[in-house]
Design a protein that fits this description.
Helix content is 4%, strand content 24%. It is mostly beta strands.
């Protein structure tokens, strides 16, 4: 895809950088594969804000993407490459030979007319979904399952890929996009290839309004609030966190603390992405 830099005719256009979207072949989604997305503005059933900095946004329909790829032995044809407002990658509309339509994550070199399949004993080609035990070493993969049959959870965003490095016993050693080395059960499935739309990270929104179209509100610093609204608020002049270490709006320390759940296990991590924080 080609990057498009807008002419600076307005302040919002001055820093705007977009994509040509030349890879998209269909404007509107397949209606049978979409559903309405209810929005609550970050509020619960009591009307209280439980997730901050959310509100508004453009109306969007959820595309039901097939992450499990369970249609074994049935060949599918790529009918269209589409835009998905809920993810950074493109999605591909697949027509299977038995008449079923599905959405899958579009890979880097995927184009209309390509054939894809899933299951055992199929070719190791881009877009096909196989178990890790059938994928050769050094192959680039994405949409990896954490548990067999649970559907792909890992490496699904634009331009991302993981690499199969070794197989030992019941597990495969996979290098994650973050550099972490992790073990996956050989029965877990993954899709061959790199996720497309790798230029997504080069986009510049150009103005704050485009962030509001996404349903994301602005974040106000605690130091400019009143003492009743934030622990950092109040004081004469510009105070640096009011003489205390940075905390959240509820007084929880915001620096140096571990955020990972204590229930999570490290037994599948061979090499952490950051050894100091393992």
């Amino acid at each position: 895809m080609t990057l498009i830099k807008s002419k600076p005719t307005t302040p919002g256009r001055r820093f705007h950088i977009g994509l040509s979207n030349e890879d998209i072949t269909k404007d509107k989604p397949e209606k049978s594969l979409t559903k309405v997305k209810s929005r609550n503005g970050g509020r619960n059933n009591m009307g209280r804000v439980t997730v901050r900095h959310r509100s508004g946004g453009h109306k969007k329909r959820v595309r039901e993407v097939d992450f499990k790829r369970e249609r074994d032995g049935v060949e599918g044809r790529i009918a269209a490459i589409e835009y998905d407002p809920h993810r950074s990658s493109r999605i591909a509309l697949v027509y299977y030979t038995d008449g079923i339509k599905k959405y899958v994550i579009a890979t880097k070199n995927m184009k209309v007319g390509d054939k894809i399949a899933s299951g055992t004993g199929i070719d190791v080609s881009e877009g096909n979904c196989l178990a890790l035990k059938e994928i050769p070493l050094g192959a680039l993969i994405h949409n990896i399952e954490l548990r067999p049959g649970a559907g792909g959870k890992v490496a699904r965003s634009a331009g991302i890929y993981a690499t199969v490095l070794a197989k030992e016993g019941e597990y495969a050693h996979v290098r994650m996009p973050s550099g972490e080395m992790r073990l996956f059960n050989l029965k877990c499935r993954a899709t061959i290839g790199q996720v497309g739309n790798g230029e997504h990270n080069l986009i510049s929104l150009g103005k704050a309004g485009r962030k509001r179209w996404m349903g994301i509100r602005s974040t106000v610093r605690g130091t400019v609030m009143n003492p009743c609204d934030h622990p950092h608020g109040g004081g004469e002049g510009k105070n640096k966190t009011a003489g205390r270490h940075p905390v959240s709006p509820w007084g929880v320390p915001a620096k140096g603390g571990k955020t990972r759940s204590k229930r999570k296990s490290n037994k599948y991590i061979v090499t952490a992405r950051n050894k100091k924080k393992r």
